[in-house]
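User: Please fill in residues for this 204-position structure.
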């Protein structure tokens, strides 16, 4: 994908109505601090389009990024952030589930899991929601640069076993630092969300 332009088009808070977009949407879900915003920046070659933070809980809204007026990248709020108020914590679930359930343009859901840690109860729930809403998830194992090569296999196995990943679900090791996995993610988006028949012109 050649990125010609990308802009944050819609920001939805807990009470906002979801946009009725006409272009295909691809969403990124995952625990707070797992690297969703960093991955989105890497995908669109921007350093700080999606705000990232050392402090978890940065993205508490659903953010729709219009890419090339061809598709949307959707940054979902991070879950599992302990310091968020109970009130907010109780709302992330319904907010994400409502989006998964009602969006007509959503084509793919990527679930990000930190390669260093065992998936938690929230991750398992998110994985099940994706499946139960009829989407075939793609798992992105983030922060791959932070583990030793020799640990990779073991960590991937733990991830697979904890989530009980079903056959055919891709697991892509990714690093926002080295950009490992970036091209693979775009390939999947182009194939499954945009359709191979779609012409991606290089100029406009
Ligand atoms: N080493 C390394 N650090 C990363 C990577 N991806 C993200 N980080 C760091 O992890 C922290 C959180 O990244 P974000 O992209 O803000 O995470 P997020 O999932 O958007 O977090 P919320 O918005 O809170 O849900 C930041 O300090 C990033 O710099 C990666 O691939 N490698
Ligand atoms: Mg974020």
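Assistant: Residues filled in for all 204 positions:
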């Amino acid at each position: 994908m050649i990125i010609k332009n990308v802009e944050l088009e819609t920001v939805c808070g807990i009470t906002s109505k979801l946009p009725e977009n006409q272009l295909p949407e691809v969403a990124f879900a995952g625990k707070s601090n797992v690297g969703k915003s960093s991955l989105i920046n890497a995908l669109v070659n921007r350093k700080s389009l999606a705000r990232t933070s050392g402090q978890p809980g940065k993205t508490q809204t659903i953010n729709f990024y219009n890419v090339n007026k061809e598709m949307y990248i959707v940054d979902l709020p991070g879950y599992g952030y302990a310091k968020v108020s109970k009130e907010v914590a109780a709302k992330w679930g319904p907010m994400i589930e409502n989006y998964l359930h009602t969006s007509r343009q959503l084509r793919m859901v990527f679930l990000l899991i930190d390669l260093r840690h065992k998936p938690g109860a929230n991750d398992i729930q998110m994985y099940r929601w994706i499946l139960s809403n009829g989407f075939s998830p793609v798992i992105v194992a983030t922060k791959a640069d932070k583990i030793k090569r020799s640990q990779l296999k073991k960590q991937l196995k733990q991830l697979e076993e904890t989530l009980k990943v079903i056959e055919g679900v891709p697991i892509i090791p990714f690093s926002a630092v080295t950009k490992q996995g970036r091209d693979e993610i775009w390939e999947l988006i182009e194939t499954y969300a945009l359709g191979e028949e779609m012409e991606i012109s290089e100029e406009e």
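For context: Helices lie at 36-43, 86-102, 121-132, 149-163, 182-192.
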